[in-house]
Amino acid sequence: MSQVLTRRLISFERVIRGKIKPLYCSKIAYLRLEGLKISNAFISTILHSCPNIRFLILDKSKGFSNIPIIEIARFSPKLQHLNLNSCICLTNRCITEITRSCPKLRHLELGQCSINNKAVEEIVRN
């Protein structure tokens, strides 16, 4: 990861974790956290601070469990595009929550994820 990107991510994390909630956080619609090691708490804080996320990319990111993925589904009703490629934490429950709780979701990327036929059936059904 480049030094510039690292500094920006650290600055963003400080704002998110602080008591200050800048106006621009509530307006964020596109967030790309690709190939990063991020915690459950960090993802959860982002979701609660950025309610208007429509495009979320966590491609090849790691360090978190299935819990924030379920939170993404529950707290991001405006989500249209979700990229979870190579996220090894996915479970059938995650897929069920995503497909049932994100009515505007039109694009779901799950490449190189360990999901089974039941999860695929859930996606097709919804």
How does this structure look, described?
This protein is an alpha/beta fold. It has a single domain (29-125), classed as Leucine-rich repeat, LRR (right-handed beta-alpha superhelix) (Alpha-Beta Horseshoe). The chain has 6 helices and 4 strands. It has helices at 3-17, 23-27, 40-49, 66-75, 92-101, 117-125; strands spanning 30-32, 55-57, 81-83, 107-109. It comes from Diversispora epigaea. One of its GO terms (biological process) is SCF-dependent proteasomal ubiquitin-dependent protein catabolic process. This is F-box domain-containing protein.
Helix content: 40-55%
User: Would you state the CATH class?
Assistant: Alpha Beta
| Cα distance spanning the termini | 36 Å
Q: How many DSSP helices?
A: 6
CATH architecture: Alpha-Beta Horseshoe
Given as residue ranges, the uncertain stretches (5+ residues, pLDDT < 50) are none
CATH superfamily: Ribonuclease Inhibitor
Q: What is this structure's SSE topology?
A:
Blueprint: H1 3-17, H2 23-27, E1 30-32, H3 40-49, E2 55-57, H4 66-75, E3 81-83, H5 92-101, E4 107-109, H6 117-125
Quick overview of this protein structure:
47% of the residues lie in helices and 10% in strands.
Describe the structure using short key phrases.
Leucine-rich repeat, LRR (right-handed beta-alpha superhelix); 4-stranded parallel sheet; 6 helices; alpha/beta; 126 residues; 4 strands
